[in-house]
Every structure is written in C-alpha cells, then in structure tokens.
Amino acid sequence: MAKKTIATPPWCPFCGQKVGRASDAPERKMHEFPVGNCQCGAVYTCDATGHNVGAAIVETLVYACGGNAEFAWDLMPEDDYLTGRIENYDEQAHQVVAKKNLDGRAVRGVLYFIRLHTDISTIAKRTAQKTDTIATRTIPSEQEQNSFVVEHLLSGAIDYLRMHGVSEVCENAIRAALYHRRQTRFCQG
Fold this sequence. Notes:
Helix content: 40-55%
Number of domains: 2
Mean pLDDT: 78
Structural class: alpha+beta
C-alpha cells in the first residue's frame, strides 16, 4: 500500500497567506533566483536545489531594497528586516511537502523570505526613485555627446593651426565655418 504524500501550497511566514510561484524579475540579472512578492510586503526567492541559500539570501535582500546592493549591505537583520524560510519546497509542483521526496523525486527547495521594516522599506523606495532620477539626468543626449566631440576636435585643430603659424584671421574663419555647419546640422535633426 502506497503512502500518501502530504503537500500544501507555500505560505508567507509573516502573514500566513498563500504565495504565488516565484518568477524571473522584470530587470533580471545574471545568476538571479526567481523572485516573488507577498501582499504583506515581504519578498522571497526560490532556491530549487537548497544548496545556494546564501546567494538566495543576498538576492532576496537586494531585491527587497529595489536593486540597491549598497543600501542592502548597510541593513542589520532583525533591526531593519525580518527573515523567514520554508524548506522542502518543490518548484515544479509549487508545493511544500512533509517528506523530502515527491513521487520518488528528491525535494530540497527553499523559499527564503525577507520583510523590511516599514521605515526601511520607505527609505529603500525613495533611494530607488532617486537613483532612477539621477541616472536619467546624468546620461547626456546624443546631441550633447556630439557637441562635446566636435568642440574637442575643434580645439585640437585650432591648436594645430597655431603651431604651424596660421594667422588669427584664418583661425577665426575656420572656427566660424565649423560652428555654422554644426548649428545647421543640429537644427535639422
């Protein structure tokens, strides 16, 4: 007589609600684990093998901090965030099993949960927003990049002409011609 395997859907250790299957993050990086979010604000990762729990912890913490690894490393466990884990998780069936096998297959998966304290969560969101804002402001447009390159080349050309004794009148005429051509080209598109 075959023994019946007891399996239950995975739950959040903080609020007890059922959690969905972890999936790839929208901005996936190399070697990331599948991630998920609970309605209570906790985030979690899935380590299907159970052998990379340390890396899963790091990924979960960084994901909870909006991808800001520097901010994540400054946090202290228990003071800034809570941790929890669900073992014996089978990623294929999306079930937690009582024994470490399901249908003759070994089950070693771990769901690792982190929930930031409210004030830390707010700071993490603000930091992520500021980082996005700064990133969009600091990248110069193509026109600004082209203008910088032209200015640099023009400066080098003028220095070359001075070294070879070209008169200031010729220098000014060349500068005006290059400036006029650049302005016309940028205005067109």
